[in-house]
Here is the input.
Amino acid sequence: MAGVPNGEPSASPLELSNSIAAQGELVRSLKARAASKDEIDSAEKMLLSLKTSYKAATGEDYKANCSPGNLAPESTSGPEAPEAEEDFVDPWTVQTSSAKGIDYDKLIVRFGSSKIDKELIDRIEKATGQRPHRFLRRGIFFSHRDMNQVLDAYENKKPFYLYTGRGPSSEAMHLGHLIPFIFTKWLQDVFNVPLVIQMTDDEKYLWKDLTLDQAYGYAVENAKDIIACGFDIKKTFIFSDLDYMGMSPGFYRNVVKIQKHVTFNQVKGIFGFSDSDCIGKISFPAIQAAPSFSNSFPQIFRDRTDIQCLIPCAIDQDPYFRMTRDVAPRIGYPKPALLHSSFFPALQGAQTKMSASDPNSSIFLTDTPKQIKNKVNKHAFSGGRDTIEEHRQFGGNCEVDVSFMYLSFFLEDDDRLEQIKQDYTSGAMLTGELKKVLIEVLQPLVAEHQARRQEVTEEIVKEFMSPRKLFYDFQ
Here is the structure.
């Protein structure tokens, strides 16, 4: 296969590691575009061969995101080892075989981030004077980098700004896509700071079978759903990469600075790119990194380079910002801080993936009340028992029950959520009753979102997406 070493023992461990990462990406891309079974089988055999060669060369099983000689600190032996091997997280793929979902404690260790603990949550509450968002109270945002540094700045009246984004791969967004925006809106409200939202339509053009016009059209449509979350138009700039990079010298200058300080080997190691990937993919990480630096937005921050950025995102995006944080001091900028969320599960369970091509894998923001009811009743994975008698006797399992997981994201009342958990775990509440509660929560939530989106005119979108001065109180 072109560009992939054959995995003979003469290859170094680092070369084998890079080849495995690249071959894994090839296997995923073949599956994503529904290649022939023979082609996928051949690629998977090559991947297995490379992993075998790696173990022969190093004495260790290959582990994603770990360089040879720099393996994650947990032991690879013992009964827990197979489960540790089965979680895989990168910006394009999230895989686990556990019905409970990804083991986030192990992911924190592997990625080298810090757990959001009660002390940090209490500090956020004290700094803002607001009750912490339910995503913080329930550990949905569970990990961070340098959040204490952001709070230090805020308490000393020093500025920071928010940055998050969306890869617009289809016209319709689903509930999972809303998670970072719901939380970012809360952060904007309680800290009263400006926000930039990057629509990576260029990325989707490079990775998906889309035309440039389609990718940009999806960006505009997705922007309407984002605006419907309630962001303050005076403090929010939403931009399409395809549009903005051509009109902002400050942004493009930072892209080039980042590109100069990241090697091809580094992006191959971080993102698993192969020699057969187009050069657009290889250079894209610098574009996602650039909004982390305030002078990428001269209309908002003029030429200031000292304003720290806080990025709320799902933890699968962390590799981009590990790279960014490594580069930042070398080009004279502050490292961005991050808040990481867990993943929103597919209806079929936490070990399956939501897909825009499978309408039954999630609740979409375009779904009718009837569609929501049918999807939850037919497809939401249950933690209940096989019979009512068994369920009454032994109770249900909230850790794998998708309806309960969804309620933990969207039901605001902590006391009610805890009561539901007790009732379901004891067997007092049946699966059908739990699903009914979820339907009653989701139907008005989606309907209200649809009503707000209806009010988002083309003129409003244009204003949000126009480079301009934002309102803030920075000194």
In short: The chain has a mean pLDDT of 88. The CA atoms of residues 266 and 323 lie 9 Å apart.
